[in-house]
Automatic annotation (TrEMBL):
Native source organism of the sequence: Microbacterium testaceum
InterPro entries referenced in this protein's UniProt entry, alphabetically: CoaB-like_sf, DNA/pantothenate-metab_flavo_C
Record-level GO BP terms: coenzyme A biosynthetic process
Gene Ontology molecular function, alphabetical: catalytic activity
UniProt-recorded name of the protein: Phosphopantothenoylcysteine decarboxylase
Amino acid sequence: GDSGPGRMSEPDDIVAAALALVERPRDLEDVSVVVSAGGTREPIDPVRFLGNRSSGRQGVAIARAAADRGARVTLVAAHLDADVVPDSRVEVIAVATADELGRAMDATAPDADVIVMAAAVADYSVASVSEHKLRKQDAPGGLTLELIENRDIVAGLVAARRDGQTIVAFAAETVRDDDDLLERARAKAARKGVDLLAANAVGWTRGFEVTDNDLVIVERGGDVVATASGSKDDTAHALLDAIVANRVR
């Protein structure tokens, strides 16, 4: 059958699990990891929303890589592209908006040893969501939307951080060059107070909706602890290497 007890796991999941047993270190054995992924969608009306181009591929890859390394993984998933499918070993909490994602992170964070905020979370939401589809005749000449600032989820997680908990944030930046990216990463890591920050350059043809990524990973003090290029599976494991190293310091 397609569902229910006895259903075989997806072949790709079986292969991934088998390879993980022989190829990957089990350095996150029984560690609780919470990862957020995907792009939030802020409703305008029942049909339209404010969103972003995040596919969720990097966050899903991090969740899968953590499971490969023995972690107990929860994935808080906003919108994911149709071809981005979470690993069957991962518990998935589906959310839509920034507020829903924030509440899911608040609920799962207290028991997490590692938190990775890889989701692309909207900075703003619509102040007044229409109960019906807005029509052109409702706003002749143009439509103005009032936006309100969403809460800073990472700041809340850092404020509530318990001893021994590692918090990792992401920064997707449009930049002039690598030096500009590093400067922004260092500033954001210090401002957010996270243990590690993974920064990547984004644009019309990079970062989002692609299978490869380039990351620079900095610690709170601004030191570069790793750089990574390649598939998002490869960069996921590079980030986890940095997380493991940070946890044992």
